[in-house]
Write a structure and sequence with these properties.
Pfam families: Lact_bio_phlase (PF09508), LBP_C (PF17386), LBP_M (PF17385). It is an enzyme of class 2 (transferase). By secondary structure, the protein is an alpha/beta fold. The protein has 3 domains: about 250 residues, TIM Barrel (Alpha-Beta Barrel), CATH 3.20.20.80; about 250 residues, Rossmann fold (3-Layer(aba) Sandwich); about 45 residues, Golgi alpha-mannosidase II (Immunoglobulin-like, Sandwich), CATH 2.60.40.1180. It is globular, with a radius of gyration of 27 Å. About 50% of the residues are buried.
Length: about 750
């Protein structure tokens, strides 16, 4: 029987009868409009809670077309142009989409732009270059032949990037492009608040204002072929204006360069070790954004409506994990559920009354087309999210897009019915309380709490070849029976390690925000962490943890003594390295196996699975074995007392090390898989000397996980696959309970 509540249904014009039918089938208690749609009166009359998407800084071309110098702006970096004589021409818009971006010729280019000799990294004097406005070309004189030159220039954003994406994806053809606008300008800011005030009066039927989102888009730039060119879900590139730059200088006492934004072409990716200018701009921006978000929230409340923020689109500057977010007065945050990591990114946000997840697939024609089965993606998305929801509940769920598309797929309709009922059942059984966490695990990086569940990410829930080996750490932890927090190097340097932390994880490639970069030159950091581990703490390093790009004091990993592993950087090739014998059986690797039948099938298909159960490159996932992802070359044990658990040729893949009363663990990479999540879980329990706690409520099958709810007097076992699974669960009294689970199933038992 269908349960009801905790479900938000998207609807659209001329679809009232089917909306009513699906609302009943899916147990929806709220209905919302999606981008570009409106709700019929008959839908409003269904008696459901009404959400309305609201775009504070778009969808009003009648205003912004009269004030085109008040659109958001971005610093763009041209391509590098080789000077072959003492004069070189640099075209501005080569590689950029002219329907999205337009050079700002209104503000003095010689004040706000910059020409750089990229061979010497020197700024070219403004007297040596001119702008040809007819051709959008910068002419540079006094150039040095065989040097490369770039221009960093301000550009107006003249097509809202998200509306543009939706436009192109849905084939909206001649639909007018929606132009975004920047509230940093007083006239436009007044227009935004006046318009919202009138909208509140004109929409008494709306219960929840779903701000989608506020003022500044994450970095999303397209090339001339309408392909994504720069995507950074945390990027602040699209937030600048001459007025804001001038005000920043007055407040902070120094002037930002264009280079502080284009960053040599990195555009201040979250992977870059953050610098002072970048951090100061985030603080400056968030102060401005938050003050105006609070005003919108207060206006919503005065009109008797809730204020909900969508964690996406123009979310930049809100900083939901930065101290003070709770002061904005928002009632709720909703965000897109891409996997377990993004579920936790939403669910863990403090300072709001409730959180909501927008599940996938989005009801767009790129998924809902004849011959496709959207229910496959729907169940996969639910399984990924469910692990995380058990550990950190969200209060509500829903979908987005065009309901008329989803309604054409009966199997998908049935799938959503099942997912919605199961979501509500979990909440009813647990009272919305998280499952018990047995260890306290801290992720240590440059960003700390401000980027909780946002590490190792470029675009939302889209790991790639360079990131998947690290993103798997978060995805594994998102549904693991541990409590997770994010701490910064500054936290450790200022306050030490908190008494309740059991394990610290530091991982990623060298010279990134996630391993730390030059912070490891500070001896106080290594002193603090060494003392903590020697006193009984646990340190897990993944990839190139504690690394310095420049070989220092004979080490690449500055905590090589803790981890028992270092990396050869071609400085000590004259010093021989000896590998101890691999120890195949260990507490950490106890669940690693390769099924003989699976091995035989794969070998017949032409694949080779190593007998050790390890290895596996990009695209070949060992069945039940460890996938170490992209190799970290030339790692080696620092001595023969290190316990080597897995190695591949000339590098260490998995090793453990006793360090005083504490322990270190090194893992070369950890893409997400059931086997890898189990490996990490065991590593955390072993490193923290909690092996004796591990057995109770653990599953013998890594594809199945257990969540315990002491207050509710229940535990559950979930099947995280699309295949039937069997598993045994050990209970605290020593008895064992057997489970046979259908695909995607969940089973509940009393404690």
């Amino acid at each position: 029987m269908t349960s009801t509540g905790r479900f938000t249904l998207p609807s659209e014009e001329n679809f009232a009868e089917k909306t009513k039918e699906l609302a009943e089938l899916w147990g929806a208690d709220a209905i919302r409009n999606s981008d570009g749609t409106h709700l019929d009166e008959s839908v409003l009359a269904l008696g459901k809670k009404i959400y309305s998407a609201y775009f504070p800084t778009r969808a009003h071309n009648e205003w912004i077309t009269l004030h085109m110098d008040e659109t958001p702006q971005v610093y763009l970096l041209t391509g590098r142009v080789l000077a072959e004589a003492d004069i070189v021409d640099v075209p501005l818009m080569d590689g950029f989409f002219e329907e999205q971006l337009k050079p700002n010729r209104d503000a003095d280019p010689h004040k706000y732009w910059e020409v750089v000799d990229r061979t010497t990294n020197e700024v070219v004097d403004a007297s040596l270059w001119t702008l040809d406005e007819d051709t959008d070309t910068v002419h540079v004189s006094g150039a040095t032949p065989m040097h490369e030159y770039t221009v960093s220039f301000l550009a107006y954003i003249i097509w809202d990037p998200v509306e543009m994406y939706n436009h192109l994806t849905n084939g909206w053809g001649d639909k007018e492009h929606e132009i975004p606008f920047d509230i940093y300008h007083p006239a436009t800011r007044k227009f935004v608040f006046d318009t919202f005030e009138q909208w509140l009066k004109d929409n008494p039927q709306v219960d929840v204002v779903r701000f989608t989102t506020f003022f500044y888009q994450f970095t999303l730039l397209f090339d001339q072929k309408q392909r994504e060119k720069v995507v950074d879900w945390f990027g602040c590139a699209c937030t600048v204006s001459p007025a804001a730059l001038d005000d920043f200088e007055k407040e902070y006492g120094y002037r930002l360069r264009p280079e502080d934004f284009v960053d040599g072409g990195a555009y201040n990716s979250a992977w870059r070790v953050p610098r002072k200018a970048q951090r100061d701009w985030i603080d400056f921006l968030s102060g401005f954004v938050r003050a105006n978000v609070k005003k919108l929230a207060d206006m919503s409340h005065e009109a008797g409506k809730e204020a909900m923020m969508f964690l996406g689109d123009q979310w930049i500057g809100t900083e939901p994990y930065k101290d003070g977010f709770e002061d904005l007065g928002l009632d709720a945050v909703v965000g897109s559920i891409g996997d377990g990591t993004t579920t936790r990114m939403i669910a863990d946000i403090p300072g709001v009354k409730y959180t909501e997840g927008r599940f996938l697939p989005y009801f767009f024609p790129d998924t809902f087309y004849e011959g496709n089965d959207p229910s496959i993606e729907g169940l996969d998305n639910w399984r990924k999210a469910r692990r995380a929801i058990l550990r950190s509940p969200i209060s509500r769920m829903g979908y987005g897009g065009y309901l008329s598309l989803a309604a054409k797929f009966p199997k998908f309709v049935d799938t959503v019915t099942h997912i919605a009922d199961e979501f509500r059942d979990i909440h009813d059984r647990t009272g919305g309380v998280a499952a018990e966490g047995e260890l306290n695990v801290a992720i240590l990086n440059s960003w700390g709490k401000m980027r909780s569940w946002m590490a190792f990410t470029v675009a939302h829930a889209l790991p790639n070849k360079q990131t998947y080996s690290y993103y798997g750490i978060l995805e594994s932890l998102s549904g693991m029976r541990v409590n997770v927090r994010f701490i910064s190097f500054d936290d450790v340097l200022e306050h030490g390690v908190a008494d309740d932390i059991d394990v610290i994880i530091n991982g990623g490639p060298v010279d990134t925000a996630f391993t730390g970069g030059d912070v490891w030159k500070n001896p106080k950091l290594t002193e603090t962490l060494r003392a903590w581990v020697r006193g009984g703490g646990a340190f897990v390093g993944v990839g190139e943890p504690s690394s310095l790009a420049r070989f220092q004091a004979g080490r690449f990993f500055q905590l090589a003594d803790v981890l028992g592993v270092d990396e050869e950087r071609y400085q000590t090739l004259s010093v021989d390295k000896y590998f101890p014998t691999v120890t195949p059986e260990h507490f950490i690797t106890a669940d690693v196996h390769v099924d003989p039948a699976a091995r035989e099938a794969w070998e017949k298909a032409g694949y080779r699975i190593p007998l050790s159960g390890c290895g596996g490159g990009q695209g070949i996932k060992p069945l039940g074995g460890i996938d170490f992802g992209e190799p970290v070359a030339n790692t080696f044990p620092v001595n023969e007392d290190v316990t080597l658990l897995r190695a591949d040729g000339g590098q260490v893949q998995l090793a453990v090390n006793e360090y005083g009363k504490g322990r270190g663990v090194y893992i070369s990479g950890l893409p997400y898989s059931a086997a890898n999540a189990r490996l990490l879980e065991r590593a955390l329990f072993w490193a923290s000397h909690n092996e004796d706690k591990y057995t109770a409520y653990s599953s013998t099958n890594p594809e199945c996980e257990v969540a315990v709810f002491p207050d509710a007097g229940q535990y559950c076992v979930i099947n995280n696959t699309d295949r039937p699974q069997s598993t045994d669960v050990a209970l605290p009294d020593g008895s064992v309970e057997h489970f046979d689970l259908d695909q995607s199933a969940i089973a509940w038992r009393n404690l």
